Amino acid sequence: MTTTNWKEQLTIPEDMGYQEIVDEIDLFESQMELRRQGKIDEKVFAETRLRRGAYGQRYDNGQRHDGLNTRTLQFPLTDVTKGPDTLWDAPGMMRLKIPYGGLNPEQMEVLAELADEYADGILHVTTRQDIQLHYVHLDDAPDLMRRLAAVGITTLEACGNSVRNVTACPLAGVCRTQAFDVTPYADALAHYFLGHDDVQDFGRKFKIAFSGCEHEACGLTMMHDMGFLGLTRQIEGQTVRGFRIYVGGGLGTVPHQAKVLAEFVREEEMLPLSQAVFRVFARLGEKRNRNRARVKFLVTQLGIEEFRRLVYEELETIPPDEKWTGYLEAVAEYEETPLKTAVPLNGVVHPDGFDEWYQTNVYQQRQAGYTAVTINTPLGDFTSEQAFQLADIARRFVGDSIRLTVEQNIMLRWVSEADLPALYADLKAIGLGQPGAGTIVDITSCPGTDTCKLGIASSRGLAGELRTRLAAQNASLPQAVKDLRIKISGCFNSCGQHHVADIGFFGNSRRRNNRTVPHFQVVLGGQWRKNAGAYGLAMGAVPAKAVPDVLSAITGRYAAEREPQESFQEWVTRLGKKEIKAIIDPFTDVPDYLESPTFYSDWGDPREFSIGDIGVGECAGEVISLFAFEIAKAEGEAFEALIALDEKNYAEADGRAYRAMILAARALVRNQFLDVGDDPQRIVAEFKTRYYDTQLFYDRYAKGKFARYLLDRHERPPVAVTEDSARALVEEANLFIEACHACDARLAGALAGGVSL
Question: Residue 123: its pLDDT value, please?
């Protein structure tokens, strides 16, 4: 740990407006001391540190995937499950807050220094255009925060029940199809609500995005708690800027498409209307049940019309604030200045590999002669040494025009075309010249089991394996396959955004041959364009080690059978769920352990797979358990619900999804009570008594969340079934089935280990 006193050495420039941030850091340091003395409750302190960007992380594998490699860390790995005070000994994660992903070279250098001095030398780009530093000791957090504040970066409200980092299209300002540059608006909203009184009483986090284009991916406004789509209107002969505002979107376990709150809101109305949304959410949003505490559940509960009425009613009660429009003068003057004069790319000898890189990583800006260059960072990771070198490269070619992207890459804007060969050579020299940005090779992944406490399977390990294989096949891949996007999450929470990928995967587990086997659910048909215009659905779980073969089978069929100009989403729809399932089914089998022991370990981790602290040992029971037979019925019913949803038979989809949950609950109950029968009332009562009330169904993090899906649907059947409600229940049924699998595996492992239940 460093012993330098940065509190004394660093002075925050007054014109940066960060004195309040510095005061917050001092307050946090005081709260840390009070926690050491036992004068602050751990639950209170947990939210306190989360709101300053300080997360705990897992250590049960002691490994981190650095790019495509895995290296063992040398930290003393304290058992963080023994008590709250161990967090002082076990390093965790620090998340920064970087509005719209905008960085300059000085900030990049400071990030490199911090990664070297406080972390493991790796900077990780997140899917919210942030940077995360892993293996940071909590004692070092205040000094780290002060050094960030000195260059205009904060960690305040990067985590916790707050407004998270505000994202925006990384091409904003240089995009050829934008309505206008949304950058200054994203910046204004992010800073106005940072620490604002009206965003301190949320039940859960709140995510916001800005987009300048309706039909591209851009800011992905449709999958956010609140999204701003830039539009212009002709009003009284004048071109007026404004936004279509969406609310209630979100991925998570059960994704929701955002609804239109307002078709057109003038730029001067953006901040007050946002404030009204926050106040309604803070007042009426769920506080006790975190699983239903996002704004998407409030919008669904009230209906968009009633939610809209409440927001505009609230708007009338808010005291006016001159800051609502005070930023607009700066917006009018906002303009990025290129470092160099634009010179065309003519007659220059291209370095080896340049043409392939140019095809995938270079975007022609709306400004003639300038390009935006995407730097492909595998798994979102780059080293502190690369960060130092990248800062120097940016100074030479683009100045302050650096952006992070939601696909975990880095973008340099305003590159003169004539500088592209030299820029490529410099990037290649530091290991950042890989082609394939925005293609199937450019896989998005959450941290998974590397560092996340919620991770079930190794999303980064799988992403690294797929990337290696796809890169080796790149020359032979059809262009239609190259254009696909793959996104991977280590669990059902969709931090890797698997719902909006062409092909998504999320981690789960299955009990096979009396052992726990890592699996991934295959999610197909999501839409990245049109601001995340559609969500994919789970098609079936396959063993982790079979995923590369499943991917080859799916992409091979698509390449062979697609019609001219047919998108992957259109092909999936045309093929139908039954045929898609027929492609996946041959890969669902798990070979015997002695035949293929590698199937029983995860990617990047040679140890036998486990989903928790309870070890899974040998069992003298039958090879195929009663639960395995029973749960297969539930999975079949869930698939029929998916078919009904596909055919727009929403009432049938709802009924079958409910029946699938009943069958899954019955499968668990029959482990304890064979004669439960078929009556749903009795099955639910026995499930509640034997698994929910006893908390046997609970896992450490989700608690009883998935059980509530069954109990809520059973206790409160829908008055009317809609497309949205049917889709949600189908998702919930699949998650409930996954939770039943996990419960059975935990209990079987406990019994095998001699643990009394």
Answer: 97
Cβ atoms within 10 A of the Cβ of 678, count? Answer: 9
CA angle 317, 319, 320 (to 5 degrees): 120
Q: Do residue 360 and residue 239 come from a single domain?
A: no
pLDDT band at 757 (very low <50, low <70, confident <90, very high): very low
Range of the domain at 389: 354-429
- Strands (DSSP E) found in 601-682: 601-602, 605-608
pLDDT above 50 for 85:
no
Q: Which helix (H) or strand (E) covers residue 738, if one does?
A: helix 723-752
Q: Are strands 131-136 and 92-95 parallel, antiparallel or unpaired?
A: antiparallel
- The mean per-residue pLDDT over the stretch 164-169 comes to 96
Task: Answer yes or no: do 143 and 177 share one domain.
Answer: no
Q: How far apart are CA 127 and CA 445, in angstroms?
A: 9
119 and 226 share a domain?
no
Taking residues 53-68, report their average pLDDT: 59
For the chain, what is the mean pLDDT? 87
83-97, 251-265, 280-294, 439-453 — which is least confidently predicted? Answer: 83-97
Give the Cα separation of 331 and 242 in Å (integer). 13
User: Which of 299, 315, 288 has its CA nearest to residue 260?
Assistant: 299
Paired residues of 104 in beta bridges: none
CA distance 683 to 631: 14
Contact 638, 657 (CB under 8 A): yes
Q: Are residues 41 and 130 in the same domain?
A: yes
The verdict on 205 and 141 lying in the same domain is no
Q: Taking the CB of residue 595, how many other CB atoms lie within 10 A of it?
A: 9
Which of 332-341, 354-363, 602-611, 719-728 has the lowest average pLDDT?
602-611
Asked if residues 259 and 302 have their Cβ atoms less than 8 Å apart, the reply is no
Is 302 within the bounds of a domain? yes
Length of the chain as a residue count? 757
Query: 618: helix, coil or strand?
Result: coil
Looking at the structure, tell me whether residues 181 and 302 fall in a common domain.
yes
Q: How many domains does the chain have?
A: 3
Model confidence at 39, pLDDT cuts 50, 70, 90, reads confident
For residue range 122-147, list pLDDT tens digits in order: 999 999 999 999 999 999 999 999 99
Torsion sign across C-alpha atoms 684, 689, 690, 691: positive
Residue 357 half-sphere exposure toward CB, CA atoms < 13 A? 21
Residue 110 lies in a domain: yes
Closest CA to 280 of 255, 317, 235: 317
The pTM is what?
Answer: 0.83
Write down the pLDDT at residue 74: 35
What confidence score (pLDDT) does residue 201 get? 86
Q: Measuring CA to CA, which residue among 614, 436, 457, 601 is closest to residue 522?
A: 457
Label residues 174-202 b or e (16+ Cβ within 10 Å = b).
bbeebbbbbbbbbbbbbbbbbbeebbeeb
Distances (CA, A) of 549 to 512, 518, 523, 588: 20, 15, 15, 11
Q: Is residue 309 part of a domain?
A: yes
Token representation of residue 338? 């290129």
Within 231-369, where are the H helices? Answer: 270-284, 295-302, 304-315, 323-326, 328-333, 354-361
Distance, in Å, from the CA atom of 243 to the CA atom of 235, rounded to the nearest integer, reads 14
Neighbouring residues of 680: CB distance < 8 A, sequence distance ≥ 6: 662, 714
pLDDT mean over 311-316: 97
Same structural domain for residues 391 and 245? no
CB 139 within 8 A of CB 88: yes
Q: Which residue is associated with the tokens 């999958």?
A: 223
Residue among 106, 101, 93 at smallest CA distance from 59: 93
Rounded to an integer, what distance in angstroms lies between the CA atom of residue 369 and that of residue 661? 58
306 and 211 fall within a common domain: yes
**Among 404, 429, 454, which residue terminates a domain?**
429
